[in-house]
Amino acid sequence: LGCWARVQSICVSLLKVPLMFGFLYLFVCSLDVLSSAFQLAGGKVAGDIFKDNAILSNPVAGLVVGILVTVLVQSSSTSTSIIVSMVSSGLLEVRSAIPIIMGSNIGTSVTNTIVALMQAGDRSEFKRAFAGATVHDCFNWLSVLVLLPLEVVTGYLHHVTHLVVATFNIRSGKDAPDLLKIITEPFTKLIIQ
Fold first, then answer.
1. pLDDT (tens digit per residue) in 80-130
2. Is residue 2 part of a domain?
3. Is residue 104 part of a domain?
């Protein structure tokens, strides 16, 4: 019986690595499908709506949009992935996406406070959970309160992104290298078609 448990433990350990790569592959494919879906569903009309939108050009409104999207989907990773996909598909500009991403960090604060409130049944657990959530909330709020005005006044994050793209010689359009598309395209083509 002890030998069988050890063999089973080794098999489970060996299966974790391919499963991890499989799930990573599915995650990258899902981002590619999300970007393609925005391109297909939105098209040029949606791109014009997002680019010329006075609301999204306002950093405070962008911050609120980021907070609301994150609170609605209950995941800053999901909302950030959606925003990155919108930028990659050309529906949203980097300058407009920066406050939205900051808003998704604040939206995480709402989520972790809700989780902390779920521990209200046990007083000591609630104190620890709420303290941890408050520290996280303070960090997110303070970082946005400091970085957002700096971004609005100087545009430093926008400039840094252009510098990074220029430094790594990242090309767009027909000349862009297909880094992950070669691996993900067969799977994503099946879904999109």
1. 888 887 787 777 888 888 999 999 989 888 888 888 888 888 888 889 999
2. no
3. yes
CA distance 16 to 153: 47
Tokens linked to 175: 């000349």
Distance from C-alpha of 105 to C-alpha of 87, rounded to nearest angstrom: 18
Q: pLDDT at position 144, please?
A: 92
Whether the Cβ atoms of residue 86 and residue 124 lie closer than 8 Å to each other: no
Domain limits for position 159: 52-175
Domain for residue 116, yes or no?
yes
Q: Is the pLDDT of residue 36 over 80?
A: no
Q: What's the longest Cα–Cα distance across the chain? A: 68
Number of structural domains the chain divides into:
1
Signed CA dihedral, 26, 28, 30, 33: sign only: negative
Q: Are 70 and 108 in contact (CB under 8 A)?
A: yes
Angle at which helices 94-117 and 123-154 cross, to 10°:
170
Residue 108 covered by a domain: yes
Residues 6 or more apart whose Cβ sits within 8 Å of residue 129: 115, 116, 119
Query: Whose CA is closest to 81, among 95, 66, 68?
Result: 66
Q: How many CB atoms lie within 10 A of CB 152?
A: 13
